[in-house]
Amino acid sequence: MDLMELFFIFLGSAVVVYCGVKMLLFSRMLFPKMWFPLPKSFFTSMGEWAVVTGSSEGIGRAYALELATQGMNVVIMSRTKEKLDHVAEEIGNATGQRVKVIVVDFTEENIFSHIEEELRGLNVGVLVNNVAMLPSHIPQPFLESVEQEQIIEKQINCNVKTMMKMCKIILPRMENRGKGVIVNVSSGVAAFSCPLFTLYASTKVFVDRFSEGLHAEYKCKGIIVQAVAPFAVCTRMSFYTKSILTLSTEDFVTKSLQYLRAGDNTYGSISHIILAWFLQCIPLKILHADSIIKSTQDFVKHLRPVQEPSTST
């Protein structure tokens, strides 16, 4: 047996081992309850309170309701008091847990001293940074945004700055106690460059990288930091579109929390994990083709209801 044959045998064996390991790791995603089990008292062991931004509806409301169901008191935060009061009553009646309402517009400046004061004295064990906004109802090229300067500022404030500031407020208390959970809601579109969603997708890339770095820094302190990057979920932001891949908010939140110990980044459900793998196999030249971009824009225009949804949650 010559050297070349040995080389190819070694190479083939290495490929088989690599593929086997990848398949094993993927199989864990199919059975999160078995591979990443959470004790029944997991969330309440983190602390008495959970804080959820953008929780007047959609994914944020679902996180607040699920964490209250798990036995936590919750702080819900958004800009519309009437909606927050309704959600607070709903959660209180359903779970018997305490609910604190903080009305705040995350697109504005100089709001965090008020939030910090409102949270003073609360034993916060879980933080869910969910609030986010789209630049416009219809996806469009970057330069076509109306009031572009204001849109850029609001996107950064809402999608990026809020996440960092909320971590800055709550993380020190978690570090002192040696435990805590931070969930930062990202988006599946952060997995690849996404024309027409360029600004929004870029803010979500920041969410992913910030979460990965923060988890690496504080996991030794007993703190879990995870970015959750869903694709389509049935919310106002997606025009309540329903399909085989579109999960309800409650279903998505329940599934995503099962992956809390699966690493610093997850798509939150097996259907979205498979969708991400499929999309990443498509060459960018195809995804960036003019015909695909135009079809995407036309598709979203077709979905838009007469009453356009709010751009933020």
Could you outline the blueprint of secondary structure elements for this entry?
Elements: H1 3-30, H2 32-35, H3 42-46, E1 49-53, H4 58-69, E2 73-78, H5 81-95, E3 99-103, H6 112-119, E4 124-129, H7 148-177, E5 180-185, H8 198-218, E6 223-228, H9 249-257, E7 265-266, H10 270-281, H11 284-287, H12 290-303
Parallel strand pairs: 1-2, 1-4, 2-3, 4-5, 5-6, 6-7
Number of helices: 12
CATH topology, what is it called? Rossmann fold
Q: What series of H and E elements makes up the topology?
A: HHHEHEHEHEHEHEHEHHH
**Classification by helices and strands:** alpha/beta
Query: Major sheet, described briefly?
Result: 7 strands, parallel
| Large-scale geometry | globular
Number of strands: 7
What value does the Rg take, in angstroms? 21 Å
Please state the average pLDDT score. 89
As laid out across the biggest beta sheet, the strand order is: 3-2-1-4-5-6-7
The proportion of residues in beta strands is 5-15%
Task: Give the termini separation.
Answer: 65 Å
How many domain units? 1
**Any idea what the CATH superfamily is called?**
NAD(P)-binding Rossmann-like Domain
Low-confidence stretches: 306-313
* Helical fraction: 40-55%
CATH architecture: 3-Layer(aba) Sandwich
User: What is the CATH C level class, in words?
Assistant: Alpha Beta
